[in-house]
Amino acid sequence: MIKQSIALLFLLLIVSSCGQKAKKEIALKDEQIKLLQEQLNHVQNTQTSLLDRLSDLSVVNKAGAESIQKSLESINQQYSFIEDLTTKIHQKDSVNLALVMNIKRSLSDINDQDVQVEVKGGVVYVSISDKMLFRSGSSNLTSQAKNVLGKLATVINDHQDLNILVEGHTDDVPMNNECLIDNWDLSVKRATSVVRSLQQEYYVSPDRMTAGGRSEYVPKADNDSSAGRSENRRTEIIITPKLDQFFKLLESPKLAG
């Protein structure tokens, strides 16, 4: 009986010991499972964050690509505009060169000191000394003037797409008589005399022409000498592109928005 009791007690101790060991192992496993679950949650959270970032990056890349595309389109438009403008400028320069050569050829029998033809600022200037066109202090054209203007008008009429600005210039010697108030008056009346002759005698269209007086205020030389004053007394016929066509030429294309 005692032996049986001892055996039963020993068996209970063994079972108790095994139970405690099993509980410890279960607790350890639970701890490991908890740790693994935390690691899994961390991995899942990291994965979600990465996916979100990749999604944002995709959006950024798409927006960036669209922006780059628009910029390229804008650059291409500007390049085409510059290329076209350069071509038209070269064409205008060619027209100016041909115009200058035609004018010089038509006026080849006239002294170069009395008539000067040149290109300045992209337009053609024909500068005619006052002694070729007018008597001293007068705004009435001489017969010699009509010879010069007739030849010039022939070239002008061959270029209907160009406008003509006629400017009168004087020296700084004061002018005041029964017909003229001052040098402003003289310069304007000389310009209008040239315009009137071109219109009435040589059929240059009046809507292409403008007359203006500059008086003594745009000199070519010093007025302290007789040679300088003689150079300043002149009429300039400026042949220009029509302004509406010129401004249209300079219009920039709209940028890609």
Description:
With 257 residues, this protein is α+β, with helices and mostly antiparallel strands. The chain folds into two domains: 1-75; 97-248, OmpA-like domain (60s Ribosomal Protein L30, Chain: A, 2-Layer Sandwich). It has helices spanning 2-106, 130-133, 143-157, 183-202, 226-232, 243-249, and strands at 115-120, 123-129, 162-169, 209-213, 234-241. The protein has a five-stranded mixed sheet. Mean pLDDT is 79; it is low at 9-15.
How would you summarize what this structure contains?
The chain is α+β, with helices and mostly antiparallel strands and 257 residues long. 61% of the residues lie in helices and 13% in strands.
Q: What is the 3D form?
A: rod-shaped
How many individual domains? 2
Low-confidence stretches: 9-15
Identify the CATH architecture of the largest domain.
2-Layer Sandwich
**Largest sheet: spatial strand order:** 1-2-5-3-4
Number of helices: 6
CATH superfamily of the largest domain: OmpA-like domain
Q: What is the strand tally?
A: 5
β-strand amount: 5-15%
Helix-strand pattern: HEEHHEHEHEH
Gyration radius (Cα, Å) is: 48 Å
- The structure class reads alpha+beta
Helical residues, percent: 55-70%
- CATH topology of the largest domain, what is it called? 60s Ribosomal Protein L30, Chain: A
Terminal residue distance: 104 Å
